[in-house]
Amino acid sequence: MTQNPFTFGNPIRERGRFIGRQEELRQVVNRLLSSAHESTSIVGERRIGKTSLLMHMADKSAASLLGLEPDRFCLIYIDFQGLVDITPQRFWGRVFTRMARTISDPNLRAQIETLQKDNTYELFDLEDLCEAITEAGLCVVLLLDEFEYVTQNPNFRADFFGGLRALAIHHNLPLVTATRRELIDLCHSEEIKGSPFFNIFANIVLRLFKRVEVDELLECYTRDAGLTFGTQEHELAWRLAGGHPLFTQVAGYYLFDGIQQGFQVDKLEKWVTAQFEQQAAPHFSYLWGRCTESEKITLISTIMLCKSKPVKKDPPFMERLVKVYPRAAMDAEHLIKRGLLREQNGDSGCYTLLSSSLEGWIIREMAAGPDEEASQVSVTEWLQSGRTTLDEPEKGLMTKVKKQYWPLLATILKEVSFELAGNLTFELLLKAFL
To answer: What is the pTM for the complete model shown?
Structure first.
């Protein structure tokens, strides 16, 4: 049995397995190579590849290929995940421990060890160390993963961020942070949010892989394993994963496993789909659970619009989506950044959900099971309590949806423009749930 080359539990650590993100890396590296050694904030939904990118940069051979030569740049990766009780003192202690392990210059290491023994980290001492590092011809880059554990922690006050900003812009200590949302939205107080610290970063959002990157990943991972995925396997992986790095790994893993088990094409697709959906369900639940009600309506409206029959003279997709649900334009930008929406068929103006598997999960999530269906009387009483009026067919549809989603569905049936959508909403919802 050949070892399965696909993994989906941990970040990518080997340089040869890191695929894509070339444009993002180019931007980060160009800022580090500038005379000002500028800082960058990497933003992206969980499991989109932030940690893999930072670890790739921390790899000396990968950094050298990027132009960050080890004799000039010392890249230090630090993960703050789960450190809810961290303090500024522990922050710098962690930084200096990693510095001492990475920097080979004996004089610099001695200076770092002296600071560690004193166990007090005054800004003047930090500035002196940074200046000594610069004089030695080095630039230390801090790769700070899960940095929201610092920005959202009340132990870190404005003076800490002011000091860190001074070190970053005046004393040759650039930062590359990774967070799920933009740093300015991850502050524990308005005072911190107003800090000039956040002005030193350029934001780079990690988005879904393009189709060519998905194909490259599948080909690269299977090449050394002596097994090749055909066109059908590539199409299935794209249909299930939609360019999401984690889900592409999941799809590749079960495709590889199924082929090794000898499944033929039809059985392989069914088996891989079932295994994929089981693994992806908790992640879909997380993504869906962190959508606002309006974003959920936008996602459902997108599903309905994509399932409608196209007309030759149709206006642009986003224009049609806004006609179905006026607030969709505001929601779409955020959903695209999070990876829940993606471009369809390479058209930058036409969007679809991340994948057909996510579409199916949303419908199954909202649909009531045999033991969960409510009576039309219950629906009527619920509508009357909220002073909401719906027609009888629409009430019938409500009975087919879990009660927790009645407010959402009622909003869809009220707010979506029937006149402009040509009753598209009700017909497709009816088809989905009945």
So the answer is: 0.90
Counts for the chain of helices (H) and strands (E), in that order = 22, 7
Q: What is the DSSP string of 164-185?
A: HHHHHHHSS--EEEEESS-GGG
**Residue 394 neighbours by CB distance under 10 Å:** 20
**Does 173 score more than 70 pLDDT?**
yes
Measure Cα distances from 331 to 334, 336, 420 in Å.
6, 9, 19
Q: Would you list the domain boundaries of the chain?
A: 21-205, 211-282, 293-433
Residues ≥6 apart with Cβ < 8 Å to 208 = 48, 242, 243, 244, 245, 339, 342, 354
344: β partners? 347
> Any residues with CB less than 8 A from the CB of 149 and at least 6 apart, and which?
80, 81, 82, 83, 84, 86
Question: Closest by alpha carbon to 420, among 291, 356, 289, 328?
Answer: 328
Cβ–Cβ < 8 Å for 47, 40: no
What are 249-277's pLDDT values in tens digits? 999 999 999 999 999 888 999 999 999 99
Q: Using the 8-state DSSP alphabet, how is residue 416 labeled? A: S
- Lowest-pLDDT choice from 41-50, 396-405, 420-429: 420-429
Please state the CATH superfamily assignment of the domain spanning residues 21-205 in this structure.
P-loop containing nucleotide triphosphate hydrolases (3.40.50.300)
Per-residue pLDDT, 387? 78
- Amino acid 311 reads V
